[in-house]
Structures are given as C-alpha cells and as structure tokens.
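Recall the central idea of this unit: under ordinary conditions, the amino acid sequence of a chain determines the structure it adopts. In this exercise we apply that idea directly, starting from the sequence alone.
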Amino acid sequence: HAPIAVSRTKGEEGYFYERPFRLAPEPFSDQELLALSMALQIAETFYASPFIPAIKGALEKLRHVQIDAGCQATSELAGHVSLLAEPAPPETIKDTIHFNDLLKAIEQRRHVRMTYYTMSRDEETERVIEPYHLYHYDGLWYVYGYCHFRNEHRDFAINRIRALTVLPTTFTPPNQDEIRRRLGLRFANITDEPVT
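Accordingly, the structure predicted from this sequence is:
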C-alpha cells in the first residue's frame, strides 16, 4: 500500500508520503504492444527525416518497454505483420538545415526570405513568406504559409528551396486549428501544380 501518513503539526496539517513512492505503470495489453510494434515500423521509414535523432531515442525507449513487459509472444506475432510504407527519399543536409530554420521561424513568428525553384516553370524566384506549418505528404516535407510574392497562401516543397534566411521582422499567424482545417479541406488535392 502507499506510504501515506497524516501530519497534525500546526500549519502543516494534511497528508504526505513517508518515503518516495510511485504507482506501478498500467501494463500494456498484447494488442497495444502489437500496435506499438507497427508504429516502430512506420517510424523507421522516416530514416532520413529531420526528426531522426528524436525517432532513434523514441524507438529505443519503446523497445525497452517491450522487453520490460516480457512480451515475447507479442514480438513473435509482430513478426507476421508488416506495414509496407513508402519510405521518404534521402534528404540532404541543406534540406535538414532549411527544415530546422523554418521550424525556428514558425516558433518565433518571423518572416523568411528564400530562393525557390518552381518546377512547372523551371525558374527560381526570390520570395518572402510567413511560414505557418510544416507537414509531410507523399514522401516529402512542405511548408505552408503566406507568400508575399504571390499575395496568397501557398505550399512550398522544402527540397526545392535553394537558399533561406530567417528575417528579424515578425507576423501574426492564423490560429493553428484554422491552419489544420484549411489543410484538411484540400489535403487530398495537393498536387505538383499548386506547390509553387
């Protein structure tokens, strides 16, 4: 039982732990452990993403959870189930730097100046954008935001950014729920053409 005692000292009345105490974690069910195994397989397809250090740490912790839970049967069962997800293409160091700079700009609500390659017109343009959101779609990372060059909201493939600078000027972004709603309404319609 929990080592709980009662204090009647004036000014310190109440319950307290007599020694450090932590409740035992709720054990995973076999189905939950199998779901975790599938999640590991999905995460491993993102081997080249900017999140690779965090993914490696999470994978190692999840594997320890499986070992600690003594789930030999679940591990054997997971060996019969595969998720054949399309892996993301290898990303360059430049893409990873741009991703991290965009993430910082979104967090700090700062404008970004970039040189961007438009595939459909085979040309590079200088743009200033308000970056709102990063998302992964069909094997590639994109940034969604307001483009001052086109005066409208646009999606930009990170692997087409040739150069990027985070500017000192700031902006007020839309509510994140609104951004997710916008993306949700048109997500299935994202094609090569709307991505400028």
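The first strand starts at residue 4 and ends at 7.
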